[in-house]
Design goal:
- By secondary structure, the protein is an alpha+beta fold.
- Among the domains are: about 150 residues, Beta Polymerase, domain 2, CATH 3.30.460.10; about 45 residues, no CATH class.
- The chain has 20 helices and nine strands.
- The chain has a seven-stranded mixed beta sheet with strand order 3-4-5-2-1-8-9.
- The N and C termini lie far apart (about 80 Å).
- The relative contact order is 0.06.
Amino acid sequence: MSALPESDWRAHSGLQRIIRTLSDGEVKPLAVGGAVRDSLLGLPVSDVDLATALRPDEVIRRLETAGIKAIPTGIAHGTITAVADGRSFEITTLRRDVATDGRRATVAFSHDWREDAERRDFTMNALYADIQSGEIFDSVGGLADLDARHVRFIGDAAQRIAEDYLRILRYYRFLARFGEDPADTEALAACRDAAPSLKSLSRERIADELMKLLATDDPRAAIGHMLSADIFAHIVSEIDGDAAGMLDRVVTREQAHGIAPCAMRRLTAMLPKSPELSGKIASKLRLSKKMQAGLVSRMDFASAPVDAGAIPAIAYHTSEEAARDIALLFAPDSEVAACLTALGNWERPDFPLKGSDLIAMGLTPGPAVSHTLEAIRTAWIAEGFPDTSRVRALAHEVIG
């Protein structure tokens, strides 16, 4: 892994324009972070970040002179977003931290590439690359760690975490996505020791990072390390006593049936099986109202019989997606496959009766119509959504 592989993102016309605009002889912007890391791992590259020795005002001046849109998205920290040929690229001036408090940093701009690398979080995120030649620049041992799938903080792990406490959760997310056991002992110890400081962060930042972790292909080992270090005591103290077992069950079922990972489904698995308590936790995490409602609606079935016979009714009352989650979460092992099969070609049926139909059958107009209609609907659902003739027979039975 000594050079970037050929890839479409490197040849993007907008990126090439930006490189030409910000280059002076041998001094040019370099790709840094995720684009370099993911390219070396053969993963898709979605975002491309660039680092440059040019000051932000000079970056803006050059881009605008070249007719490239420049947006000062993080100007205080030296970040400009350039939009060229339909794609956005973040360009950040080399910098060093002047002061940090675990939540935000005050930076000073720099011309020192090594200094810029050493302020980053993990060695595999501090790899720089010449986009045109593919040459890799590594001053912190990131290539060796990437090759070994070893997630390691740059320099002193405790110091890196003290600069931004969210790096605790980022560490576990990177461990889940890129790491292999054995995990870095210094990193694990530093995360455990600094965990109480997570309480100083906003719930939104906590939830965002936690959901990204749970959305990885297989977060079980990383979550196991978090549970061992009692990390959740400082972010979701009410977590289920068998969170590891419940997470293992749902991930195993996802993998067995070829179902894509879902962070909300996995979070539901790890929370107490109480709609009220889980709803309060979701609210404390500042999850969206839609996510909170979805979590509670699934948790309503934690203690209900969930089998292939019940799944169509569950889907009717919630949604096909929710019913699939409920089956993966709460159905017994012997019923999971049948539940998913029952949802395979499921479409929400339309109730084939209206209040006017009941009146035509002889029911007196008034409140009794809606009550009777709901009684018939309940019987229709219980019988597995029979056809119109059976529904009319049910109606005559109820009216009679």
